[in-house]
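stage 2 :: seqdesign
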């Protein structure tokens, strides 16, 4: 299906699939930006959680141990 418009000497024709191809391009850009921002949030959380794990290991290392067993 083709729609045609005439403006002076120029005519513009649009096929039925063109609006979908243009909107799908915009949708793909939107999804890429959303995916990128969600990955950045995940990476930031991963770094913070890694810091918590490392700090908890440091605290456990500093806890005085009980009487040491001799082998």
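stage 2 :: out
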């Amino acid at each position: 299906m083709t729609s045609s418009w005439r403006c002076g000497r120029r005519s513009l024709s649009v096929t039925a699939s063109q609006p979908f191809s243009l909107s799908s391009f915009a949708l793909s850009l939107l999804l890429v930006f959303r995916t990128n921002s969600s990955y950045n949030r995940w990476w930031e959380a991963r770094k913070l959680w890694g810091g918590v794990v490392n700090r908890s290991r440091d605290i456990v290392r500093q806890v005085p141990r009980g009487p040491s067993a001799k082998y």
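stage 3 :: structure notes
- The mean pLDDT is 79.
- Residues 19-61 form one domain.
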